[in-house]
Amino acid sequence: MKLKNFLVLLGIVLFSTSVQAGRVVRDSIDSRVLGEVRHFSIYLPDAFFVQQERHFPILYLLHGLSDDDRAWTQKGQMERVCDLQMASGEAVPMVVVTVEAGGPDIKKHWNGYFNMEGWQFETFFFEEFLPAVEKKYRCGGDKNQRAIAGLSMGGGGSVSYAQRHTDLFSSCYAMSAWLRQDDHLQSRGHLESDRFKILAEAVHNLDCVRFVAEADKERCAELRTVAWFIDCGDDDFLLQQSLELYGQMRLHGIGAQLRVRDGAHTWEYWHTALLQCLPFASRNFSH
Amino acid sequence: MKLKNFLVLLGIVLFSTSVQAGRVVRDSIDSRVLGEVRHFSIYLPDAFFVQQERHFPILYLLHGLSDDDRAWTQKGQMERVCDLQMASGEAVPMVVVTVEAGGPDIKKHWNGYFNMEGWQFETFFFEEFLPAVEKKYRCGGDKNQRAIAGLSMGGGGSVSYAQRHTDLFSSCYAMSAWLRQDDHLQSRGHLESDRFKILAEAVHNLDCVRFVAEADKERCAELRTVAWFIDCGDDDFLLQQSLELYGQMRLHGIGAQLRVRDGAHTWEYWHTALLQCLPFASRNFSH
Amino acid sequence: MKLKNFLVLLGIVLFSTSVQAGRVVRDSIDSRVLGEVRHFSIYLPDAFFVQQERHFPILYLLHGLSDDDRAWTQKGQMERVCDLQMASGEAVPMVVVTVEAGGPDIKKHWNGYFNMEGWQFETFFFEEFLPAVEKKYRCGGDKNQRAIAGLSMGGGGSVSYAQRHTDLFSSCYAMSAWLRQDDHLQSRGHLESDRFKILAEAVHNLDCVRFVAEADKERCAELRTVAWFIDCGDDDFLLQQSLELYGQMRLHGIGAQLRVRDGAHTWEYWHTALLQCLPFASRNFSH
Amino acid sequence: MKLKNFLVLLGIVLFSTSVQAGRVVRDSIDSRVLGEVRHFSIYLPDAFFVQQERHFPILYLLHGLSDDDRAWTQKGQMERVCDLQMASGEAVPMVVVTVEAGGPDIKKHWNGYFNMEGWQFETFFFEEFLPAVEKKYRCGGDKNQRAIAGLSMGGGGSVSYAQRHTDLFSSCYAMSAWLRQDDHLQSRGHLESDRFKILAEAVHNLDCVRFVAEADKERCAELRTVAWFIDCGDDDFLLQQSLELYGQMRLHGIGAQLRVRDGAHTWEYWHTALLQCLPFASRNFSH
After folding, report:
1. Whole-prediction pTM
2. What value of ipTM does the predicted structure carry?
3. Residues 6+ away with beta carbon under 8 Å from D142
4. Which residues of C touch A19 (CB under 8 A)?
5. Which end of chain B is more exposed for a tag (fewer CB within 10 A), N or C?
6. How confident is the model at residue B182 (pLDDT cuts 50, 70, 90)?
7. Which residues of B touch C (CB under 8 A)?
8. How far is CA A81 from CA A27, B194, B262, C47, in A?
9. C1 chain-B contacts, CB cut-off 8 A
């Protein structure tokens, strides 16, 4: 066969074989706990539409401060990474969901994953959101089919959720995570606001490093049932927090992966983090 | 020093040391050759603003069919990659520019980098655009300070420009390049249109593979003065064209890098290609 | 806690927690088919010694021309890659085995994975070696727990074995594979030898590209049950063969991964290929 | 042209174009300072033999405790990485040298890069070795053409040398570096020995973290003239030391790259570190 014809034939075949691609849908849930509607953006893999009976694992992918559920799609190009890695098999077909846990004006909008006075987000997440999304979108169901990850405020959210719900998540991937809050940061001028102060206090109270530092034998045993991955850029202002968490985990004999790559607190970092996160979550799902 | 204080101090220092970041500006040029105004998007590195006398190398980064100069910034996150790699030193500080060479409706809008009846883009590029941009933005000036790259239609554009102007570019990085056009693709239904037909004919006439296949000794010697990098995804419908170009270059003893990575004809591919492209261009600049 | 004490404590913990490490054992089998003893080098993961009842998946990792079973360990640093990736979870704990299928003097020593006049290696492999090693080392047992890979002559061996035994292997990773043999190579001077000529003829007869080119519907369906990965360096003299195999597989709608990375026909290439091979095999094992 | 012929032609061309390859030579120097002969292993790039007048940059690549100058070649496959990256242009052609600074029995053999009672290695290095090797092998000559790197004990050696000789090295790449020594490690049983004790005391006296912690303005300014890269595995028992050094450098506004990748104190880690080290050194050479 001549090269030219070979090319033509190849072109036809490939053109007619469209590459597998999932879809991101924006949906919402009317929360009784929060007393308002919250949005979520959900990636449904190609197989979700083809195999109508199939059940999928799910990754809860948390966004950061002053963002909302669209951030991972619009700024982090989450859909592209999912399509790429599920097509090549580096990630298993899974549902990926980001729920709206913040807003642009941190003085006025509620931001955060924890229960605070006037904002019971964690209750909403576990009692309303998680069951509803897993039922509607044929996914999750137990620890072996559930992973969590997040960036910055969502990185801290993912670690704290997984620390206190080791029975619910098989793995946790924390990116540039905001894991603790000392007095200094609370008093920085540009963060002065009621709703941000309340959030900062909640982060202070649920300090993820202290949670490990104070862990007794039983808690350590529980923490060992989750696969942990800590990823933070060398130019990130929160780097030290990730290093402290990792140090405490090693001291307590809790296995974890640590990566410090090139970068700062930016979407370029989180985009490339996702390329490691999806395979990591995939490896730790089981049947 | 206690860990907590160490953190606080570190936080202060890092917060006050903002990470280096360039800026993307949209500018335009009134072309006599084309008889209309064309836009261009230009990345100016942090150092451009700090060192007012300094001269920079330039990368011409071409966009693809039915896109315009904003594509690399808006869909390819060019600015993020530039900031990251210039901060870490993987890329040298350089100017990166994308010029508007297309429009969304390929039936109605002109697309393409070559001279065609009614659209003398190549003349515009070399006689008007290149000198104007290098003068206004303190960059380029000669082969050693100039590189070219592009995706798809722009991949073919970059290769053809560098093939026929070996005295102007030190390196060429072709992504998922559209390098040649046979009869088959011209007759595919959804590409039927006057302006696209004209483009396809121009691509056919400037076939980049044939250009090497027919090269005599002198042309081969010229082609060896440019550093070549060919990068195409394993699921890309244009893969075979990249393989053919590489094969011909090897046959003619013209050094080139070839990479086939995971992916299709997508922005996820080109985004990660840029991570290799900037260091490659940097290595091949000289003083 | 002071930094210094923190370090000391960390040091103690880490020193006493030795990193998981497997072991490479050299063993042998007395073959009735071949009428002689053949050696094999086998990597047994850390868990093999700790969990005495546990059953493991197995990767058959084939060596190249003029080498023997020790090559992957001594030149390819296979043990290091296995230890690294099984410790981090990128690869699942598995047994990796290389069987002696060659010798240094290609004129005098038998080399090759196929049945030839006077050297029934393929019969030996499937009837004697595979059952014996899987029984003795608690591994394999069926397709879902078995993968194959190899470099150069072993790359061709792995592809041909997997092509003709789709019921036995879940995945195949071919590195710099020698997949076919035309007349030209047979007549090259430095390869002139009886035993090499016999091998070249066997490779010619089992041409892996032709095997796909001539595949009917049924054969294609079988080939689709194996996960394929083709990996070859851009400076490798055998690159074209990998490209042809991939082209034919795409033409026949048989999914495959293709990678062309930087490098030639060298151990540096195969060492880094292994870093992709073990996770690929792991992803395609199932329970 | 038919595919088969294309392959054949390609094969001929590639076979006749042998890939560029350097050579590792073992040489020695009779030291008056040490009163004995010391060996060194030196990589000379392909271009060294072809261009007999050309001058090259040099990388001093230090080995670790209980090893000697052959370690980087025999265990770290230094030659393979050099060949690969110089062929593709990721590293510039350079000379790479490892000098014998240790021996297998740490109780009996001298190990270490510093001046100690009875072992004036640092004097030997700067007054005898460096000038001799740069003269004999047409390399180095000034800071812009000189880089230093090392692993473990050699990682500490490279950092301390570059800290105290900022006028001599343009860059420093520290792998899994032994940067400081507290009392605790000195008293660990298996390290008890006279010569090791002397080394440990020297490391304690030249503490690389303290060197930065105590830096005044002038010293900081000098340290900023070197490009620093700190690379250590997440499972390395010395990780905390690298983190401390980086933390101090950030506190003092001294730019540095930090990477924490997957791995422990192993040759697999250092081998892949070298893939980043050579391009880093290359980027920081200048003319």
Report:
1. 0.93
2. 0.92
3. none
4. none
5. C
6. confident
7. 1-3, 6, 234, 240, 243, 246-247, 257-262
8. 21, 36, 11, 33
9. 2-3
